[in-house]
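Memo to structure team: turn this sequence into structure tokens by end of day. - J.P.
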Amino acid sequence: MTVLDYYAQRYRHSTRQMWRDRILDGQIHLNDRPTTPETPLQRGQCLTYYRPPWEEPEVPLGFDRLDEDEDILLVGKPSGLPVLPGAGFLQHTLLFQLQREYPEIAPIHRLGRGTSGIMVWAKSPQGRSRLNQQLRSRQMLKVYRAWVGDWLDGDRLTIKQPIGKLPHPTLGSVYGATPDGRWAESQVEVLTRSPEGVLLQVRILTGRPHQIRIHLAAVGHPLLGDPLYCPGGGLNLTLNPETGTYRVPGDCGYCLHSFRLGFHHPSSGDWQSWDCPPPDPLR
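Reply from structure team:
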């Protein structure tokens, strides 16, 4: 096996060409010396990868504060901002930005990187416990706005496509439509139709990963601009021409917005709901 074969086969988060470029750039050493992509490896040799300092991709770091008290914080997240660390993001996440002011804050639910809209965060142990309980018992109201190219299924539709893991070349697996997955339910209502697309309102009764993206794709109407999910709920496993990598759930380009969130307040028990104004074309 050559040096290039070793890295390309063992570390598939990068393409073969990317590893070749790194080797030629002197980032890979064999027995403490620069090497070549075609150098054959022998037992007992030592490979070292001198990775350059990591620079996180630029993302929109601003967010809206919608409401706050001693137990909860409601924020409006912009599309493009990751919620939690991962996939090359650490400081450029909503969690990191909030922890600078609230070190003990915790998210109650998650939104995909490309999804905008309202989220609730717990500031106290009581808030975290009681909101998580409502989430598990499906007492929390979660309503989204979604933008699709067309819609042929009437003005209302309930989707119950199971969601489970599908093979992915670099991540190992990602969630998609599969008959042996876990039960999931989305209630879809058409709001407006136009030549440019169809505006949907979607209430989710479950919170499976990427549920709305998968469900709408499963019935043949994926979100406009969704780079990953194809009609039927499967995966687009072609290489991204801009990055040379396989498409992943964190890739943006689609229009999905968390529009309304409702729950019983963890202190008073009163039912409250909040709306987060959506961006165009989801108004």
